[in-house]
Amino acid sequence: MTPLVIDTDPGVDDAYAIVLAARHAHADLRAVTAVFGNVDLPTTTANARRLLGMLGRGDVPLGLGAERPLIHPVSRRAADVHGDDGLGGVAERFGPLGPEPAGRALDVIADVLETSPEPVVLAAIGPLTDVALLLATRPDLAERIGRLVVMGGSIGIGGNVSAGAEFNVWSDPEAARRVLVEERVPTTLVPLDLTHAVTVDRGWLETLAASGPVGEALAATRTVYGRGEALGVDRVPIHDAVALLEAIEPGTLATVPLEVEVDTSLGPARGMVLADRRGRTSPGRTVEVALPEGTDLDGVRDALARCLRDDMVTRPGG
């Protein structure tokens, strides 16, 4: 079993990721923490509560995270992609509401790390503000994080919020730089390069919808979400679920160690992740970057379907 904490900004693809983690046979979901991002903090928190309630996972503590970036205020949300409610305009299909937040995100995560007999995997699938604050204020807990899995960045295909920046990193580049460049926690970065290669089509979503109420609710988000992602084909990416699969099943995605930098300027490149792919031996810190080359893309889609479909659930509370 993989002991797991998720820091998230639900968000449609975050909803897929939470369902995956709550249902995966090898995931021991210890906590979920909500951060600002796709929508504001009250909405991401409510959405996390809806998902935990719908999944029957009231046993999972929920933490209340950062409501804004470390330094500069956020200039836009992602309602055009995720809907005003964060769940593709169909938030009412998810629920009932799970328990109220158990406390601040930093305290909830710290409690899991301090009490776990083994290192914990921390999956960060929203802006990295909470993770940066945790590592800055509790550096003693860094060694209790077995691995940090981050959904964010774009290495070579362009961004989804600007010409070069991916939304999660762009939302708080200063936090992202601290986590990806300055810290030393073992980290796997799952960028758009990989998640845009693992899109799902109408047939995949129709099969998911037919599997039961949770699958139906997830698939119903596609009307707004698919239009907002605008990839030019009748397919949608579920970025965060791909990252969660790697968090739970290490080695699912093919990775290469790369030294990265995050642009924190206030110019057009703000939020870009720059990866050095020249193959040089570098004394700097490297992170494992997941790329399509070497990854079984169809195998990832199949694994996601097995974990997300209601008719495949074997765990209690699913």
TrEMBL record:
Pfam families: IU_nuc_hydro. Residues 4-292 form the Inosine/uridine-preferring nucleoside hydrolase domain. GO terms for molecular function: hydrolase activity. SUPFAM superfamilies: Nucleoside hydrolase. The keyword Hydrolase applies. Keywords: Glycosidase, Hydrolase. This is Nucleoside hydrolase.
